[in-house]
Amino acid sequence: MKKRYLALLAAVFMAFSPANSFAADESTTETTEETTEETTAEQGQNDLTERFSTFITSQYDEDLETLTFDEAVQKALRNNSSLNNLKASMDLAETQLEIQYLEAYSSDGFSSLISFLNSQSSYQNSELSIVAQEESVKHSMKESYINIIELQRNVALSELALKNDELNLALSKIKLSNGKISQSEYDNINLAYNTAKEQLETQKDALEMEYVSLNILMGTDINKRYNFVMEAFYEPFELDIPVESYINGKVASSNSVRQAEKSYETTKQTSKLTPLNSSEIGGSQSAQNSLNSAEMSYQDTKDSVYESLYQKYNSIVQTEKDYTAGLDELKLLQEEFERTQVKYLSGNASYYELLTAQYNVAEKENTLLSSVYSHMLLSEELTNTELM
Description:
The protein is mostly helical. Helices cover about 75% and strands about 0% of the residues.
């Protein structure tokens, strides 16, 4: 059916429609090649999770099922109601297009043809919407998946900090009894300890809520718990062309811009046909208004996507600067921990000082891994045109 009505359009509207199908094919090919190159580059990287897990790591329970990210995505795609509704609507729309195609083919006037053109544009945009929705689900799952891993590590980091605070509180109690600190100083330390305990419970509650949210996305029992595994890859984002040129290319191939462009091109076609349709009273002005509106919408969409992508690019640049600086800071903290460890073994440093040095390393490692995950998400949002 699609081939037949496309053949009809090619014959009737050769004079009205710009020849852009070849450009669209080129865009698709380029996008496929870019995706392949990005995937190959990612596979060649090393997982950084272990590197930044010297003292803390994500929770692991041998009694729980391990849920890979790909498995989680497949569950979410099957469960997503918006995606399922879009696919169901597409089936109905295709049947309606068949009817409208026959009416347009057999009718002497242009009214049926205009109606068919509008429906066809809507149908094609729905096809793009399905792809966009699928990519959106995948990206949302990645965000949720990463949130859980980060919350697990935050809980582990807070438990490590609380261990330090407990020791500090015990030492302070001894100092208080020996008159080395005042009651108010001890009360402040005790308050800080209790505050840390409350914050830990808040983090645990947030983790439970994220578990529930993920299970809802996947359509599984909200009480279900898994072991989560997400590899962390980092590769600096480098461009061979000016950033403006790169972003303009992404804008042109972005999903939302392609939809706006299709609507604009269809409106141009129908506006040229409307004066030929004698049944339309005042149709010319109405068609021109629609054309102006579609053109403005198309331009606004391009501007909005461009601005959004530029912001993401700047965020990537800043994340990379922070990551590089963080690596230098981590090296210094690791050296300090090693020195403190030697001092502790020789009796020249307290256990509390050792735990503090250990915590400082763990905290910086946690920050760096979060930067890697953030960089992964931003890079995907900047390169995946279906998310735009």
